[in-house]
Design brief:
Blueprint: E1 17-19, H1 26-58, E2 60-72, E3 81-90, E4 93-101, E5 114-120, E6 124-128, H2 134-138, H3 143-173, E7 175-188, E8 194-203, E9 209-216, H4 219-222, E10 230-235, E11 243-245, E12 251-253
Antiparallel strand pairs: 1-12, 2-3, 2-5, 3-4, 5-6, 7-8, 7-10, 8-9, 10-11
Helix pairs in contact: 1-3
Length: 257
């Protein structure tokens, strides 16, 4: 197999780089675009969760009164809800709030009935159902779901945003070291597609022998090296990791204009 020739002029930092032909971009771009609105949803859920927790801990109980109740009927993908509108006083101002409950709670509140409201001038308010804790009343989204969603998004953001940006940074600022390919693998996914990876070893400028591996974005880049081939490894100037094989990454150096 042919091996990319590494340009000799690599001492000037930051290096000028360009995206290499054959680097997988289409599917990765779609995944990046998909993760952005999902991450925004996760951020909004986290803000609501934190705000609710702060209201439960720092808010004060005030007496409110129910002004209106109504229900929304179940539809194809909506189970329906029982809605309660209430008024309360906060810092001398009369304010209005609303809370949606399960239809099974219908009839719990009568118009004009005094109710317990957890209130804060900066965090809003929440109607507390009899027998309910402040924490349950102020959490509109279950904490377990928020943690699950944010954890899932953190994995996606790491893989499709952080790792590619880190590789780009290594091409511009990384320290070069001689290396050798020790293993190549291609694993077929259950739903189609193939994951390509390369394992390699290298020695840093301060004499540390290291072994590492990397995911390769396309078959075209993966086939450019063979097991046993000498390669150029780029690693963090301060430590051995992270690192990337120059010949298998998504970028290449170019001479400054």
């Amino acid at each position: 197999m042919s091996v990319y020739r590494v340009p000799a002029a690599t001492a000037r930092l930051p290096r000028a780089i360009e995206r290499r032909w054959g680097a997988g971009t289409g599917a990765r771009l779609l995944v990046r675009l998909f993760t952005l609105p999902q991450a925004l949803v996760g951020l909004c859920l986290t803000v609501r969760c934190v705000t609710g927790a702060a209201l439960a801990l720092a808010g004060a109980d005030v007496v409110g009164h129910v002004t209106r109740t109504w229900e929304s009927q179940p539809r194809s993908r909506h189970p329906g809800a029982y809605h309660v509108e209430y008024r309360y006083t906060q810092d001398g101002r009369e304010l209005t709030g609303e809370r949606s409950l399960a239809l099974s709670m219908k009839g719990t509140f009568d118009v004009g009935r005094p109710v317990r409201v957890r209130s804060s001038s900066t965090l809003g308010a929440a109607l507390i159902v009899p027998g309910e804790s402040e924490w349950s009343a102020t959490q509109s989204v279950p904490l377990s779901f928020v943690l699950f969603w944010d954890g899932l998004m953190a994995v996606f953001l790491y893989l499709v945003w952080y790792v590619p940006l880190r590789q780009r940074w290594l091409y511009r600022w990384g320290t070069t070291a001689p290396g050798r390919v020790t293993l190549k693998s291609a694993e077929r996914g259950q739903r189609g597609g193939t994951a390509y990876s390369v394992a390699y070893e290298f020695t840093t400028g301060w004499g540390e022998a290291c072994m590492a591996s990397m995911q390769v974005s396309s078959h075209e880049l993966w086939r450019e090296v063979s097991e046993g081939d000498p390669v150029t490894v780029l690693h963090d100037p301060r430590r051995a990791r992270p690192s990337v094989v120059y010949e298998c990454g998504d970028y290449q150096w170019r001479e400054p204009q």
